[in-house]
Each structure stands twice: as structure tokens, then as C-alpha cells.
UniProtKB/TrEMBL annotation:
Component of the translation initiation factor 2B (eIF2B) complex which is a heterodecamer of two sets of five different subunits: alpha, beta, gamma, delta and epsilon. Subunits alpha, beta and delta comprise a regulatory subcomplex and subunits epsilon and gamma comprise a catalytic subcomplex. Within the complex, the hexameric regulatory complex resides at the center, with the two heterodimeric catalytic subcomplexes bound on opposite sides. Signal peptide: none annotated. It comes from Galdieria sulphuraria. Keywords: Cytoplasm, Initiation factor, Protein biosynthesis. It comes from the Eukaryota. The lineage of its organism: Eukaryota, Rhodophyta, Bangiophyceae, Galdieriales, Galdieriaceae. This is Translation initiation factor eIF2B subunit beta.
Amino acid sequence: MDQSHQSWLIGKETRRALSCLQKELREEPFSGLRIAKETLRLLRIVVSSLASSGLEKVEDAVRQLGTELTRGYPRRFIAENMARRVLKVIHEEYDTANSTNNARLDASELGRPPREQVKNAKVLKSNVLEAISEIEDELDAVLPNITEQSLEHIHSNEVLLTFGYSQSVEEFLKSAAEKRHFEVIIAECELDYSGHRLAKNLNKANVDITLISDAAVVALMSRVHKVIIGAEAIMADGSVLAASGTFMVAAAARHYAVPLVICAGLHKLTPLFPHHPDILYDILSPSQVIQNSTVWNESWFRQLEISCPRLDLIHSQYIRLLVTNSGGFSPSYVYRILNEFYDEIDTCL
């Protein structure tokens, strides 16, 4: 890192918080909402400490913080998304604080915002911090806003199918179960058996559940009314990244004309496109799925090439509905949300 850009990380509090968050990003399981909130907390520190130094340093610091968190866990989009949202706020406040926007419009053609000094740094600081607080309030309302839509999509005596564990899906199903009776088939997700956790939690809530192996999904899909799963990221074209094995579920659902519903907060919405799957995917050790170590030294086994991705890409044509904290909409509507949340020049930090 360039020495001229290190001042924003010199503070012990910022370095300590950054180190802890990077550690959390590398660990499993993780909470996307917590990562988003912790990222905003770091961004608040950066804006508070550097607002008086000018717009250029604030923007560079926010970009570098998002980059550092991505290095901590390269396939994690949430930290970058929070940095992009704060950058959009900074750009908007700059435009508001300056009467002329022509300079910024010209600079945006070159992919960089202008770097003039904002006349009233205190006003900029106050407004940006207020906007960060609003984003934090929005994160606090993610799960309640998702769960309140459950009765619109889940009806009595339906058979639902889900895959693995998702906090959004768990709260979504629990909310519907308070007023309606339905059955949930849970595929265990054999990569980490996270479906067992969901089954245990739903059983405590008196939800009628059936836990199955992943191999039984296709056989049971014909009696399913709706598939509801979570996602790790919502891409710019409306496709989603979800746990390994979910593409099989999506393909089976499409074959039997079963609607696929994705439950995810908009803090997972990223302006990136899934054009390079080798960059977007995490490849894990095959030992997680091949636990019989006696075959590892066999000559035939050494000739095998085994891929064990942590995530699957589900294209938008497989998805019927995205249920988010801003309501439900089709994948084709994602581009409008992107324009509302992010600035085009911040796609690459």
C-alpha cells in the first residue's frame, strides 16, 4: 500500500476493527448482516476522521477499506457493497454542496469524480454520517421487512422445499407458520449439512418438516408447490450466487414448473456481472465430500480432477421472484435498484 494512503489506517481502533472483520470474513459460518454493519462502523470512523481533509482523501479511504475487506475474503461482496453505497452518498453530497455539476459530469466520463475541495467540510461530514445511520437502520429492518411478506407467498397446506440454511429463509418460514400450516422439505446440503440446523430450528417452531438428502430432491420435486432458498449475492443481471447444490434444485424446479423464490436482503446486491465464474467461485478441498481417505493413494484416484465449488450460479431465467427488504420483484427489475443504490463509476473500487 502506498505510504501516502496509509494515514486512514494508522489509528489503532480502525486497524483492530479491520483485522477482526477480516478474520470474520474468512470464517464459517458468517452473518452477512453483521458484516455489513461492521463495515459501516469502520466507514463511519474513516469519514469522521478524514472529512476535514477533503473529498479526495475520504473517497480514497472508503475505496481502500472496501478493497482491504475484499482481500480478507475475496468472494465476499457485502463489504464492497457497503463501501459503494457510502461513495454514492459522498458523490451526492458533493453535488449538493456545490452549485455547479458540470465538473463532475465531465470527470465521470473519465471514470473518476472531481477532486475539488468541498467548501463546508463539517456539513459534508454531518450529512454523510447521517446517511450512514440511515443505511444502518435499513439493515436493522432487513429481516422484519422480508418476513412480513411471508403470507403473500406461502399458503395453507402447501409443500415447500428449501436447501441448506439461510437466516432469511428461516425467519420467512417461521413468520408464515404463525398463521398457516404447511410442510417444508429440507435438503440437507451435503457440503456442510447446514440443512440440519434449519430443520432443528423449524422443528422448535412447530413447523412440519421432512429432512432429505440432496439426491432425493428431483424425486420429490413433483409434489412441491414452491421452492424457497437464500442467496449469498444478487448479481447485476438478476442471477444469484447460492450454496453449492442449489443449481440442481433450480434445474429440477424449472423442469417441473415449480416457482423458485429467493429470499435475500439488498445488502447482497452487487453491481458486478457473473461473466467470469472462475473468479466468482470458491473452490474448496474435495476432502469435504470425499471423506474416505483410503482411496486417496489409489492410482486411479490420482488421475481424477475433482471440483468442489462453495457456490452455485443460478441464472435469472430460473428465478420467479426475488423477495427482499424492499419488496418482491422479478430479476429483470434489478437494474433499477442498482441505479438507486450505486454510482456507475464505483463498480470497480
